[in-house]
Structure of Cytochrome c-type biogenesis protein CcmE:
Amino acid sequence: MTRKKRRLYFVGLGMLALGGATALVLTAIGDNLLYFYSPTDLTEREVAPGQRFRLGGLVEEGSVEKDGETVRFVVTDLVHTIPVTFTGILPDLFREGQGVVTEGQLGPDGLFTAASVLAKHDENYMPPEVADSLKESGYWEEGLEGAEAAVRSTGGAEQTSH
C-alpha cells in the first residue's frame, strides 16, 4: 500500500469518527432539549403525549389552591389559561400575579402536571421566556400595573380545553 492510499484511509477514518461523534452529540442534545410554550402556544400547536416541556406565564389571581403538598393553580398569558398541578415544595417567592415557569407534561385532559416550578426572584424580574411571550401576544406593559391593565382590557383570560 502506498503512502498516498494510507493517508487517504486515515483521513477517511478520521472523517467517519468525527461524523459519528457529531451524531452522538446531536442525539444527546435532542433528548435533553425542553421547549418553552405559553398557554397560547399550546392552543396553536400539537404537543405529543408524554412530551416534557416548559410552560410559562403569570399565576392567575385567585387560582392557587393548596391541599397538603399538592398545589393547583392556573398559568395565563392574559389570553389563554392552562390549569397546573404540582406536588412538592414551591419556591418562596411563588404567588398569584407573578411570573412562573413550570416544567412537566400536559395530560390528555388539558391538565399540566409540573415536576418543577420556578418563580421570579425580585419585584422587577420576570423569566425571559414569559416576558417574550407576553410581548408577542401584545399584552406586555412594564410592571404589574401593565399586566393588570391588560387583564382589565381583555376582560380576563379564556380557559383552554384540550
The two ends are 66 Å apart (CA to CA). Residues 1-33 form one domain.
